Amino acid sequence: MRDANITIEKVGDVGKDNPATDAAEKAIYVENDNSKAVYCIRLCGAYERKYYFVTELSVINMERVLLDGDMLMVCLWSDIVIIDLPTGKIRKAINVTSEIDMFGIYKFKSGYFVHGEMTNRYFDSEFNMLWDAGGRDIFYCPERENSIEIHEDHIDVWDFLGYKYSYNEFGEITYVWVRKLDKYAQKGGRKMTKMKDRLHTGELYLPGDEEIMTEQTKCLERLYDFNTTRPSEGERRAAMLKEMLAEVGEGCYVEPPFHANFGGAHVHFGKGVYANYNFTVVDDTHIYVGDHTMFGPNVTLATAGHPILPELREQGYQYNMPIHIGKNCWLGAGVIVLPGITIGDNSVIGAGSVVTKDIPANVVAVGNPCRVLREINERDRQYYFRDNKIDYDSIV
Fold first, then answer.
1. Is 306 known to be catalytic?
2. Which structural domain, as residue segments, surrounds residue 261?
3. For 216-234, how does the pLDDT look when each residue is reduced to its tens digit (9 = 90+)?
4. Count of structural domains, the chain
5. For an engineered disulfide with 263, which of 7, 50, 223, 345 has Cβ 3.0 to 4.6 Å away?
6. Which CATH number goes with the domain that contains 378?
């Protein structure tokens, strides 16, 4: 919690002759097998608002409060306070978002779904974030009493425009319902964003949009020129990369042929990045690569995906999620990195691996799907390949 002092007062037990809710104007009523009580929670010093509360909680699954076993979870602005029942002591306080109001917390599968003003996030039982469905219009529908519906196998979320998104437990959009906006737009609602504006938000969009295609063609023209350079034109290639890529540090080299959906326009290179033949980036949104990272031949970094739902694919819908690769990594020949993946600093990805989940720093990871094989260790300081020792006297 950010500079906040939290105090919890047990106002009183709840019974037929002692309805404590009447005595506590700003209170939270909780009831389970072990506890029937009213608590007053005060959060002071963190924000302009002095009190955060929910009143008359006769229904346990009210938006800002969730009772799960002996834990009471309360949404307080951008934080969640976990209270131990029946003692009333704080078990944990977690900053879930940054400058974003949370509308509610819900139990879903084995974790917790947090509904916020501009984001929806899913956490495991220890409150480690598993996915974030951010980037859309405000996740609040003024025309509905509830903007969230929790089902056994999916979550329905309505946004400010009245669009409904269905998420599974992996954060994948399995269904989108879009309605006509003319009537609502006349009432002051925001119009649907342009397809081009959705390239970097994670929203579903149509990549064949004319405005997108016009920009993409310009980028591909520059890429064509790069791929037709001669081997002796190293300086020209370096200059062209600076024009093509979103960012490129000193000493970077990409061996033609280089393949990119947007000609590298959404690719960010640090210093000394090297990419071998047939480096393929599906750069419909941003790809970030740290200093001195190396890519073997035929590596693919794909930010774009398509919905599982056949009806949406039939219409040509696509979404993009950024890729982050740390400093001093090595991705072997034929590695494929899927949308939304992060690979930590210094890690090595074995040839032919398909990276479907995040890889931490300082590890060797291999396979399809790619899994951590081991950490980089002291033996790696002595041997560079199998039983071949590193001769430190012979290298600079």
1. yes
2. 210-394
3. 999 999 999 999 999 999 9
4. 1
5. 223
6. 2.160.10.10
